[in-house]
């Protein structure tokens, strides 16, 4: 089918579909048949072709992998988190792919988390789960649930060995180390314990992989006796379950993209009927947090960027305002502790934390030193505490864990992710790098923020190579993050930029609304505007710029390839949603119906159909001079199915055969790619080597 110099040619088997009077021929629909030997043979041939075409990069890949490994402290230990009488933590061991999850009893007088030198095990530790042992004999391993019961006796955990995000749920007795006979296959993320730890709630999915049922399981009984607590029949909605920090209530969260409903069960009465906090109303979103005599309600009812209210925990009803809506200040979540509330928010494109003392004292915002950063609460399982833990990072500051005294306002750095010396033997110094915030002007006059990082002294004359990253969907914000692997690019003179385009949530709910449904094209034109601004401002040149995005960001990559192929020297599309119209037209596919409130419903609405058809990458492949494209996908991905990039690459080769297109399929992974950390480093080295090859 292929040689080192000839790309695989997918056979054409035209499949016809008609919607709203429009007839479309899909020559490569056959690739969606996962169990067809011809499909597997085609993907295998594509992998062989990609390996042959990138064989000259083998040395560079090994070099990049070794740089990441060398800079990473492979044997390491997380900052232990206190819950009742134990410190909980995880650690990694040099040469092992997965984490080891542990706890150690709190000792008399011990008020600060114990941290060992060089990540060694803590004296007296108890190993709860060893991911390396669980993963033995499997090419893929992922942990779904990891939930210790309130009394510390049971551990509910779930495992996935295929990457399809269907987990087998088990319960371990932490006093004996025995794994109970209780076993529930095909569960999803999310568990919650009853107050007495006799009952475990969990979630399962329907045939379209939509989380639609919450179940109640009694410890020590077979799963065949489990009871459905809530079944969500509206296909736009999905469900989740969790225990409040106070351990007083089990919350059943029911959400669509724009509407929500929360039901509660007293944790002390797990067989009780779920009570509704507020019935769902189309377009109204709210989230619930328990605090003493009240439920806190974070909502957007008449509040575009959300407001905070509360209602009685005994008899939920009217909402009493607590924090009024303030346009431009997006309230994202609230965490309740006995004497304080902490609100996570976003202002001017930056994350923040606001503290509200209970019973006296003014609210205040924490302050941070860098102009560009990302901050958010970490695990804080204890309700009765005056201290919270948060994580902080920037494009130059490694992930940092702080404990913050809510009374004294003292901030203590517990740990900063170690970055070991690079190939030159010099210790990592953030002052060797510089970060910037720039702004591009979109076609409609909107200012779009861009975050950049580069090695100090990188020229601004257009000669520097650059990578621009984007996402722009689901109100997900691409806040600044630190990456050890990225240092290998920066040290080679590459500028890394993040385009904070509409469709994300960086500038509040309006920013999201202006990049979805019939305004989706703003996402793509914003990204192109950012790319062109980098050239105009002297950061780089169009023939020295590679674009990169994943999932919905992969759709972005395909769209801008069609929209402005001249703007990029290369494009990396990971697990890319490039055949969006075909997928959104098929309600039987995973997650399709739940996506209609994000993209529109092309099945019933001809305007949505025409609009989506005008931008979806697969539909709009044309005989253009495309930049080099690397598409990376996973065979067992249930979020963006593997055949979307497979079809896209096949059509690119057929319609624009002069282009350079590569497809790499992980044959035993899911949406997140390889599961082991060394395998993930190798994947990143593969991608970065390809990028550097495009930029030299």
TrEMBL record:
User: Keyword annotations for this protein?
Assistant: Hydrolase, Protease, Serine protease
Q: Name one GO biological process term.
A: proteolysis
Q: Could you tell me which residue ranges the Peptidase S9A N-terminal domain spans?
A: 8-415
InterPro entries reported for this sequence: AB_hydrolase_fold, Pept_S9A_N, Peptidase_S9_cat, Peptidase_S9A, Serine_Peptidase_S9A
Top-level division of the source organism's lineage: Bacteria
Does the record's keyword annotation contain Chloroplast?
A: no
Q: In this record, what's one Pfam family?
A: Peptidase_S9
GO MF terms held by the record = serine-type endopeptidase activity
Q: Residue ranges of the Peptidase S9 prolyl oligopeptidase catalytic domain?
A: 481-693
Q: Which family does it belong to?
A: Belongs to the peptidase S9A family.
Q: What protein name is recorded for this chain?
A: S9 family peptidase
This chain's source organism reads Micromonospora sp. CCTCC AA 2012012
Taxonomy, top ranks, is: Bacteria, Bacillati, Actinomycetota, Actinomycetes, Micromonosporales
């Amino acid at each position: 089918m292929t040689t080192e110099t000839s790309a695989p040619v997918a056979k054409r088997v035209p499949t016809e579909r008609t919607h709203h009077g429009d007839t479309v021929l899909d020559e490569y629909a056959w690739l969606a048949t996962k169990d067809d030997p011809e499909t597997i043979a085609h993907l295998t041939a594509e992998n062989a072709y990609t390996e042959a075409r990138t064989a000259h990069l083998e040395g560079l890949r090994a070099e990049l992998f070794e740089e990441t490994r060398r800079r990473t402290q492979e044997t390491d230990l997380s900052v232990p988190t206190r819950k009742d009488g134990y410190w909980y933590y995880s650690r990694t061991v040099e040469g092992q792919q997965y984490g080891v999850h542990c706890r150690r009893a709190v000792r008399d007088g011990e008020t600060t988390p114990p941290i060992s030198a060089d990540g060694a095990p803590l004296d007296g530790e108890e190993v709860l789960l060893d991911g390396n042992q669980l993963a033995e004999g499997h090419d893929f391993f992922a942990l779904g649930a990891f939930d210790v019961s309130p009394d510390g006796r049971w551990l509910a955990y779930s495992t996935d060995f295929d990457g399809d995000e269907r987990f087998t749920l088990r319960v371990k007795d932490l006093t004996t180390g025995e794994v109970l006979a209780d076993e529930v296959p095909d569960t999803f993320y999310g568990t919650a314990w009853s107050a007495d730890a006799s009952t475990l709630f969990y979630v399962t999915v329907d045939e379209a992989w939509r989380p639609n049922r919450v179940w109640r399981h009694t410890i020590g009984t077979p799963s065949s006796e489990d009871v459905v607590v809530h079944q969500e029949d509206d296909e736009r909605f999905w469900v989740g379950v969790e225990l409040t920090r106070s351990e007083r209530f089990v919350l059943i969260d029911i959400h669509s993209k724009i509407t929500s409903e929360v039901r509660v069960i007293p944790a002390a009465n797990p067989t009780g009927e779920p009570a509704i906090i507020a019935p769902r109303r189309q377009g109204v979103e709210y989230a619930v947090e328990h605090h003493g005599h009240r439920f806190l309600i974070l909502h957007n009812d008449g509040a575009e960027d959300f407001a905070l209210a509360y209602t009685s925990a005994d008899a939920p009803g009217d909402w009493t305002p607590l924090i009024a809506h303030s346009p431009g200040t997006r309230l994202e979540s609230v965490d309740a502790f006995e004497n304080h509330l902490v609100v996570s928010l976003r202002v001017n494109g930056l994350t923040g934390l606001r503290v509200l003392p209970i019973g006296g004292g003014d609210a205040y915002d924490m302050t941070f030193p860098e102009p560009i950063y990302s901050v958010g609460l970490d695990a804080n399982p204890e309700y009765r505490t005056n201290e919270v833990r948060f994580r902080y990072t920037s494009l130059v500051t490694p992930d940092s864990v702080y404990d913050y005294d809510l009374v004294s306002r003292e901030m203590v750095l517990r740990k900063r992710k170690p970055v070991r010396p690079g190939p030159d033997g010099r210790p990592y110094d953030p002052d060797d790098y510089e970060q910037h915030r720039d702004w591009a002007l979109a076609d409609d006059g909107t200012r779009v923020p861009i975050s950049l990082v580069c090695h100090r002294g990188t020229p601004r004359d257009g000669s520097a190579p650059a990578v621009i990253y984007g996402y722009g969907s689901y109100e997900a914000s691409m806040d600044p993050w630190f990456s050890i692997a990225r240092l290998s690019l920066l040290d080679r003179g590459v500028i890394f930029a993040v385009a904070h385009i509409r469709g994300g949530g960086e500038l509040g709910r309006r920013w999201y609304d202006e990049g979805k449904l019939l305004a989706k094209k703003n996402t793509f034109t914003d990204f192109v505007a950012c790319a062109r601004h980098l050239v105009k401002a002297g950061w780089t040149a169009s023939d020295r710029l590679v674009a990169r995005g994943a999932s919905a960001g992969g759709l972005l990559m395909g769209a801008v390839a069609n929209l402005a192929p001249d703007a990029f020297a290369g494009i990396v599309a990971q697990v890319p949603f490039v055949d969006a119209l075909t997928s959104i037209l098929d309600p039987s596919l995973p997650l399709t119906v739940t996506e209609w409130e994000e993209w529109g419903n092309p099945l019933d609405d001809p305007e949505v159909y025409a609009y989506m058809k005008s931008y979806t990458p697969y539909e709009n492949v044309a005989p253009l001079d495309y930049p080099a494209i690397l598409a990376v996908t996973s065979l067992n991905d249930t979020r963006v199915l593997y055949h979307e990039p497979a079809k896209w690459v096949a059509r690119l080769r057929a319609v624009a055969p002069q282009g350079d297109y590569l497809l790499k399929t992980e044959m035993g992974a899911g949406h997140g790619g390889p599961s082991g950390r060394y395998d993930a480093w190798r994947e990143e080295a593969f991608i970065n080597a390809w990028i550097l090859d495009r930029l030299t």
